[in-house]
Amino acid sequence: MTSTLNTGHLQKTIWLIGCGNMGGAMLRGWIADGVDPMLITVIDPALPDAPAGVRVLATAPAGEPSPAILLLSVKPQALDSVAHAIAPLLGGETLLLSILAGVEIASLRAWFAAPQNIIRVMPNMPATIGKGVTALYGNASDAKVRAEATALMLPLGMVEWISDETLFDAVTAVSGCGPAFVFRFIEAMAQAGVALGLPADQAMRLALGTVEGGALLAAQSSESVGALADRVASPGGSTREGLNVLDADAALLKLMRATLTASAKRNAEMAAAARALT
Asked: Contact, 203 vs 190, CB < 8 A?
């Protein structure tokens, strides 16, 4: 296996299996962070465009040294065909990372027997602009391996390690699915503004700017988000009246619990389906 580690940047041979939206975001993030494009091979039958220097192949290259790092970025239903083609080419020292939703470590281990270290990765959509949240879970106890996995994901934004794989369904519901729920909230907020008489384009700008500013303030503040809400809402004022609607019978909390529960349940169902295939 060929690999080198350059101070400040991860410099190891990487195979990226699949280069769609998320795989492409990772690829661009690695190169922007200083990884040599010549060390990266994209394997995707669609032969997508890639930054200069990156090798793009339709199929895995047989007869070459095993990659130091392999990242699976394909649809879960493609795992069967991908594993049959890729697994024989991997060595024990290959660090295998997977962003396949619902596919657990045990299922990945059944498909890929050789790699000693397998790590599940759950990025979310804002990773495409370097503002994502990426959750990691794996059986790697070696601090160096965990540091390498972290380094690969840091160009995408925040990185969080999960201590128990059973929590991955919940993590997926909160941060993996969460951007879609935020988008729906922004849409609803803008539509409500339109109902009050605002032009649609202006209502959307106001909603987007408000959510962006509120999220940044919450992220930078030492106060809890509840305390921040109370700071905006003076007693008897208009904000308090609006919060009274959201807080009545814990309406918003119940809605979000039901939303995340539905997403987590579906993720568990996909994991069960993946187990059944191994």
From this structure: yes
